[in-house]
Specification:
11 strands; 17% strand; 9 helices; alpha/beta; 4-stranded parallel β-sheet; Rossmann fold
């Protein structure tokens, strides 16, 4: 029986984004196919199994994600398991260690907006991405736009499949007002805020959002607070410096590393959701 492995090492380091995608992929695949042979690769620093299912093995790897020697180091670790297929949901697969490789490409920020990346990030993706595209037996994307960008890079269309992402309606749904107010009050957040959710980094255009919010406050003195939920990404320092320079500190609420289970309440409690990003993956606008 073919043995399919899923690389979930990133989940030991962060929540949201690709890590959330990987977690849901594993959970839903376990429910869809209770008889196939699967394995989940977690980093050793993650003590709790991401998934428990009778037909899923749990493999522990020492190689951290985004390490400069990741493609070789992880390949050597995989040699003891030799899966039939390895799915790398974070773009870059190891050089060897499985019979076939599938990757998911969420976006091409490092090509479209390289000035929004750190030098280390650019070296990692630029140094490995072309090889990853050649190596992958198949490539998944979650938007037609990303598929078209890959075709522009010379990837044959038949090697790309678009699989739009879903929404967990058991979590993201209208909640009772009393529950929303209770959860917001516990975080000292008033209802009716302007809400941003995402990583605090230049690609998200928080600079533009802060400037727009400053203009709003000039025209509307009683404008609701701006609530920013997320975590610090690369090059975040300028964002906090700009907020101070615009004299907005008293009107901003920063919630960092909020547990994902609490997030639906803040969507429910917001007056408006803003998405100012220059560029996004995951099928989101713009």
């Amino acid at each position: 029986m073919p043995l399919i492995a899923l690389d979930a090492r990133l989940n030991a380091y962060r929540e949201g984004g690709i890590a959330e995608y990987t977690r849901h992929l594993a959970e839903n695949l376990a429910g869809l196919d209770p008889e196939g042979a699967y394995a989940l690769i977690q980093h050793v620093r993650m003590r709790t199994p991401l998934l428990k299912a009778p037909n899923w093995q749990l493999w522990h790897a020492f190689t951290p994600p985004h390490h400069r020697f990741e493609r070789i180091a992880l390949a050597l670790e995989l040699a003891r398991w030799r899966p039939t297929l390895l799915h790398s949901p974070d773009f870059i697969p190891p050089r060897f260690g499985a019979r076939h490789f599938v990757i998911t490409v969420h976006d091409l920020t490092f090509l479209r907006y390289p000035h929004f990346q750190t030098a280390d990030s650019l070296r990692y993706y630029r140094g490995n991405f072309a090889a990853a595209l050649r190596q992958a037996a198949h490539i998944l994307t979650n938007a037609e736009a990303i598929k078209n960008e890959l075709i522009d890079l010379g990837v044959p269309e038949q090697r790309i499949s678009v699989h739009p992402l879903g929404v967990d309606h058991t979590r993201f749904r209208p909640l009772p007002e009393s529950e929303v107010r209770r959860l917001l009050a516990a975080r000292k957040v008033p209802p009716g805020c302007v809400l941003f959710v995402g990583t605090f980094e230049p690609r998200k255009n928080l600079s533009g959002l802060l400037q727009a919010y400053a203009v709003l406050r000039q025209k509307l003195a009683d404008a609701p607070p701006l609530l920013l939920i997320g975590r610090r990404g690369w090059l975040y320092q300028e964002i906090f410096a700009q907020a101070k320079a615009l004299d907005l500190d008293d009107h901003l609420i920063w919630l960092e590393n909020l547990p994902s289970a609490e997030l639906p309440a803040f969507y429910n409690g917001a007056a408006v959701l803003v998405q100012p990003s220059f560029y996004e993956g995951f099928g989101f606008p713009p």
